[in-house]
Amino acid sequence: xxxxxxxxxxxxxxxxxxxxxxxxxxxxxxxxxxxxxxxxxxxxxxxxxxxxxxxxxxxxxxxxxxxxxxxxxxxxxxxxxxxxxxxxxxxxxxxxxxxxxxxxxxxxxxxxxxxxxxxxxxxxxxxxxxxxxxxxxxxxxxxxxxxxxxxxxxxxxxxxxxxxxxxxxxxxxxxxxxxxxxxxxxxxxxxxxxxxxxxxxxxxxxxxxxxxxxxxxxxxxxxxxxxxxxxxxxxxxxxxxxxxxxxxxxxxxxxxxxxxxxxxxxxxxxxxxxxxxxxxxxxxxxxxxxxxxxxxxxxxxxxxxxxxxxxxxxxxxxxxxxxxxxxxxxxxxxxxxxxxxxxxxxxxxxxxxxxxxxxxxxxxxxxxxxxxxxxxxxxxxxxxxxxxxxxxxxxxxxxxxxxxxxxxxxxxxxxxxxxxxxxxxxxxxxxxxxxxxxxxxxxxxxxxxxxxxxxxxxxxxxxxxxxxxxxxxxxxxxxxxxxxxxxxxxxxxxxxxxxxxxxxxxxxxxxxxxxxxxxxxxxxxxxxxxxxxxxxxxxxxxxxxxxxxxxxxxxxxxxxxxxxxxxxxxxxxxxxxxxxxxxxxxxxxxxxxxxxxxxxxxxxxxxxxxxxxxxxxxxxxxxxxxxxxxxxxxx
Length: 635
Ligand code: BF8
Ligand code: SF4
Description:
Blueprint: H1 7-18, H2 24-31, H3 36-40, E1 43-44, E2 52-53, H4 70-104, H5 116-126, H6 135-148, H7 158-161, H8 166-174, H9 183-192, H10 201-230, E3 236-240, E4 250-255, H11 259-268, H12 272-280, E5 287-292, H13 293-303, E6 307-309, H14 316-319, E7 323-328, H15 337-342, E8 347-350, E9 361-362, H16 370-385, E10 400-404, H17 408-418, H18 424-432, E11 438-442, H19 454-465, E12 468-473, H20 474-482, H21 488-494, H22 497-509, E13 519-523, H23 528-542, E14 551-555, H24 561-572, E15 576-579, H25 589-603, E16 606-609, H26 613-630
Parallel strand pairs: 4-5, 4-7, 5-6, 7-8, 8-9, 11-12, 11-14, 12-13, 14-15, 15-16
Antiparallel strand pairs: 1-2, 3-10
Bound molecules: FE(4)-NI(1)-S(5) CLUSTER with Oxygen and iron/sulfur cluster.
Iron/sulfur cluster binds near residues 45, 47, 65 and 68.
């Protein structure tokens, strides 16, 4: 099977094979055939009377030892996946809230408030008074409210309820899925899925939606607070793919999710003393900071830091032989990085107390010593540089330019250049007249089960040709950046005439001397809420709810439990959501039917699973067409 569509990644796979270094694809091959029970969601290990399995063909056992049936198995499994995803985004968000609180109290000098406008905007949205108040005072109240989101309250989660349409809130109340905390739905899901609690698949699925809406709140909170502390992304030109690593520089890759450490490393990497130290160590180009995965996206959209690679291909950054330090925080970090790093001089550095890896060096990050830790990390990288083995250097030359940094604010600002009085009007007019047929948000990962980027490339070409405006986050963004779809050339080559005209009008107004890029990079996975913000603004302006908009989502190469949580809130938000791989639910017809069809009657959104990217694009186009018809627009 083809492993990747990317030449640079392929050359690193070949190099690793030559050196006898196993990568993710080799470990996957060693797992085949994977367990059919697990694939279908038909195994349960929730108590010690198990593990239990249900025979998918109906010959063997149809119930676990306790009597749970296939529907309960599958619904419980999905619920726990969403709970894990929510716990991850919740952990990330809580971390941000702690630092904002410290910052507001003057206890975190390394974290000043960099975006006062965003602070005031968020404060106003969540009902904090801003008139006549100073930054620290507002920040303190916002941070206190943020902290309060994590425990159980008797009011809806602020960061969810204030960030969706009124209609959505009513729908969520109607079906009893309003989260009143970020952590409590996670705990509740663990409770209701333990031995002998909830056995009703539909009840479990509604609990899953509630948990996913807590995930939405957590993601939104993380994005808002990151913008307040580090700045709201604005368009910036940068590069992506392994060719951003430099032979003549000390290369430091930042990998994981939370910008708390990575942003500070970027700031400190400009320290002239450290740059001089790198040069003195024999690296004439000084320090070269690059990103991997969502931490990479965070610093890419805020500071234009180039993205080396992402997701499934993360190990290949080490195989270049020039990665001096690989600094990780948490989530989506393969433990295998340690064994690959062992074959090279690369220093793998873990930084979070909850995310250590055997074989890595742990340099604990604490907010009161952020800059100090960042300096120490950079010095460690400089030291490692001197141990490079020249025989092992193989840097692929491929890079693509990428125009990134399209926060909701940046999108509105760009539109305001076309119509200052009413920025959303040009977007809505063009949706109405069909120049923009609809909007598709690409999110999620790259998986070892699909040739890397293949689905993204095929789908984006088909959708853009039919004038669908493309937004992207997370490793979907990584794929499009690496493959050259975040360029003006991509717009010229692949956009349909209507879309091209709109992107060109906005790009020219923005002084880009040409169109906006074909794919708008909105940020990391928590930043999917930026896309939701745009959709909510459009819905409010049109006076319809989200479940009627010609907006769809797709995770064509999904991997993680976080992606399952995000997909679930997208569905609850009313978006038809495509997955390129089925999660482990196919063992239950009931659950599968609820997720792909019944849920539509409740929330308007639903899941579609289609592995073939061409067919998936057609499916999304047909969905957009029926949404358009529903609004009385030309299909
Ligand atoms: O949160 S897209 S592989 S890096 S889970 Fe992970 Fe998937 Fe990438 Fe970002 Ni999102
Ligand atoms: Fe088996 Fe029930 Fe225990 Fe699951 S909870 S392992 S189905 S006995």
